[in-house]
Design a protein that fits this description.
Largest sheet: 5 strands, antiparallel
Shape: globular
Helix content: 10-25%
Oligomer: single chain
Number of helices: 2
Radius of gyration: 17 Å
Strand content: 35-45%
CATH topology: Immunoglobulin-like
Low-confidence stretches: 1-14, 16-35
Order of helices and strands: HEEEEEHEEEEE
Amino acid sequence: MRIGRALYWLVVTLFIGFAVACGSPRGGKARAPRGGGPIQEVHLFGFPVALNTDRTPGPDVVGIRIYASNRATARGLPITKGELEVLMLPAGTPSPGQQAPGPLRTWRFKPNELKANEGMTAIGVGYKLALPLGSDIPNVSAVTIVARYVDPAGKVVSSSPSTISLLTQ
């Protein structure tokens, strides 16, 4: 039992370290990125396991960080229009000829909703999101997370997928 608790605190400490390491240099006075233009790329960084942030056994939060950029700058750009979607899919890729399953869960964010989660890091503007799994947690050991930016004209730009384990101690 002590090993499980120690492992839990190790994971929580690593997550906090991840969040701090992605934080802003020079006490939050990093320069805003230049470049402007349309968002052409979305980058997703996910913590490899879901977190248990309450006293109830089992995972309840997936932690991710998202950056949007374009080919004019390698730094993260603010999302000021359109919509950001985060999709939770069953882990793995469908076999050839199989239809891809629909998302298990989708979170949608308008630019004004993202503002509270916006932060400047060494690689530009990013969004730190703690996505609640809610009470209907999928009964699978892992999920795939994909972030999608939908511009006002409906063009979709997707991140690479990230697999996150739902197994916790």
